[in-house]
Amino acid sequence: MNQLAEQLHTQPFKLVRKIEDLAERKLVSCSRGFLQMDTAQRMMLATELIHAGRDPQKVSHFLEWQEFERFAAETLEQNGFRTIRHLLFKSQIGRREIDLLAWNDSFLLAIDCKHWLRGLSPLLSRRVAHAQSERAEALAGRPEILRQHGVDKAENRFLMPVILCLGQPRVGIVDGIPVVPISKLISFLYGMSPIDEGLMRIPVKPQKGQSLLV
Questions:
Q1: Number of domains composing the chain
Q2: Comparing C-alpha atoms, which of 44, 46, 75, 72 is closest to residue 58?
Q3: pLDDT tens digits for range 87-130
Q4: Which of 200, 64, 67, 212 is CA-nearest to residue 135?
Q5: Is residue 4 part of a domain?
Q6: Does any domain span residue 81?
Q7: Quick one: which of 30, 115, 20, 25 has its CA closest to 70?
Q8: What stretch of H or E contains 120?
């Protein structure tokens, strides 16, 4: 009984110290006695929890997928990219959607945002990568859509499919498609090369029968 009473007595102190620690690391903000977290703080805290060994799928339940995509788009924009979220289009294989299209003078990226993705088996990783390459190839066959959204000289470009996830993946590149944790997105942007032969690069050019699409 005395042990239980001691635990109850020390718990508030431990909670306060934990909050202070989070505030010192700028993972939470305190204002008028209330704790606040913006999208960037929630993403950083989620990343820390996963790096500490917490189940990424459980952690991802506290994040909305829109929040993950918005944070990714803002990060890209802050580093010189233009972005479009949820790009819907028709192709010869049906209606397709790109979670996040991003481009600058050097790169054109078709990004699939998987905020729950971590530790997938090689088989499932290849399925995810194949699905994204299919969507990217479909978009690369519709250069007029890219032009409509402001992509300059679309038909002189290569479209690179990318998978963006919350935690650290088992494999960094799957069949030529990079799988990038959100915490390393900036280093990936500045470390990739437009002529890297290890990454999938899909030439943007009209597909036959394109005129039949609306």
A1: 1
A2: 46
A3: 999 988 789 999 999 999 999 999 999 866 555 567 878 899 99
A4: 200
A5: no
A6: yes
A7: 115
A8: none
